[in-house]
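The following block was generated as part of the benchmark described in Methods. Ligand: flavin-adenine dinucleotide.
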Amino acid sequence: MKILVCISKSPDTTSKIAFTDGNTKFDENGVQYIVNPYDEWYALVRALEIKEAGGGQVTIITVGNAADEAVIRKALAIGADEAVRIDADPKDAHYTAMQIANYAKSNGFDLVLTGKETINYNGSQVGGMIAEAMDLPFVSLATKLDVNGSTLTLEREIVGGVQVVEVSTPAVVSCAKGMAEQRIPNMRGIMAARTKPLQVVAPVAVEELTSFVSYAMPNAKSAVKMISPDNMDELVTLLHNEAKVI
Amino acid sequence: MVLVYVNSANGLSKAAFETVTYGKKLGDQVVVITNGSASSDLLSTLGEYGASKVIVDRSVDGEDAQQLTRLVASVAQGNGASTIVFSHDLIGKAVAPRLSVRLNAGLVSGAVALPEGDGSIKVNVFSGKAMGLVKVNSSTKIISLLPNSIQPEKSGSACAIEETSGNAGSAAIKVISTKKPEGEIPLPEAELVVSAGRGLKGPENWGMIEDLAKSLGAATACSRPVADIGWRPHHEHVGQTGVAIRPNLYIAVGISGAIQHLAGVNGSKVIVVVNTDAEAPFFKAADYGIIGDAFEVVPKLTAAINKFKASQN
Ligand SMILES: Cc1cc2nc3c(=O)[nH]c(=O)nc-3n(C[C@H](O)[C@H](O)[C@H](O)COP(=O)(O)OP(=O)(O)OC[C@H]3O[C@@H](n4cnc5c(N)ncnc54)[C@H](O)[C@@H]3O)c2cc1C
């Protein structure tokens, strides 16, 4: 099975979030980038498990600049066979998805996996967009994925529960918690990653449908009001009269 | 006109009323598109929130996002929709992105407010650690609205229902089985949430958390390590790598308040923290704090809530 795993970088979860250029740009100063956890822990690791069980190939793809190759090497160290970098700024989700779909269409994959969302923009958009651009079925928020020939059996989250569904390949799947366990790359993986193929592909022209005008930090919280553990009636009164939430 | 997609598969939820209210406040005529077998009487109540008409395709069960996308796209194009509104829930997250590609329409994902004067729309970014204003450059716009972002408002009366079919094609996804635990409040939509962390020491101690949740009518949630060790189900895990929620009230018991946890809950209107450690970082993000042992504080709080509820009746 030929699997394409979409990888995004995201700031380390402990990064301080700040903006520059009159609050129009994310301040990358001192920010450490990691592989977006959903892409790494769930999509990539499950792809590797499927390959280990049934053979095939795992290709990772990212839309980004040369500086993002560190993140690509990390994903290769975990075990992907090869990488593709579309050489462009991932302007918005639509732009990014159209680049990936364009590559995927001409390279014949059985399965395209994404993470559930990125932890920086949390849009949950790219997977569905790739699927539509390729006219393929899309199973979102899958927590389990099994392959049986050309049939995929998936467990997915639905409103208020879980569901088991089947779909034929080729298909696009977004991966959520439960699908696999995080893998820590070992020394051999890290060494091997240095020499694995990394192809750089020029982007296609795509209209920018959305753009960020500016950013802002949330309003600072007012100071916390401390309440004695022996006075829960007071808390209930405050929640009712002051906060008006019960 | 504004087209609002409403998921009516489990009846009409608050999210449905929120999205129709939002569409109405955009200032144009609102048409609702839905699917499935909800009764016409029920669907016509969407008129009270501002819908002028509800279009329903009874032949589409809504399990396949590709099929739903074709349905919404054909109604949008047939009616000349300038804006299409979804709830940013599981269905919205699956359908809105597809529709964006199909209609070449920019998508604002997870909107938390109505458009500003210049048309840009506020969304949470960096898992709620910051906010951004997004502008749509295309003439057709798609907005998916984060649950609990606006209050539903009644502005009209029951509206007409129109049936449609034949534009959605067939479904590629085959449903084998569906499991829906009874009586649980879905976490992303819950207005009140009681959450607990590793401070509870073990899964056998969650009874008091469930009791508190029950007395409030709240959903339950947990921190990541608690879901990881299997004390609680995965779908209860909130935070940067779990569910992001913004309830009216979030009560955090025995949770330290790590930055990744806060990222998923700091949109909550009011936060109450119960922790034995006065230095726990969560107190900095809290509105009300109680330094104390969960095993003593939680039962007392439940008793106080029950007393309050009884006095209200
Ligand atoms: C990439 C990444 C992503 C992550 N994503 C998430 C995420 O999405 N969600 C998430 O929650 N975490 C996430 N984490 C983990 C996060 O960093 C914290 O480790 C986690 O939130 C801590 O959980 P906790 O507060 O339950 O446990 P602890 O940090 O162990 O805190 C337990 C708290 O309970 C208190 N306590 C102990 N006994 C009692 C008592 N009897 N009564 C009252 N209080 C008591 C203690 O004082 C302490 O503050 C992530 C981490 C990483 C690296």
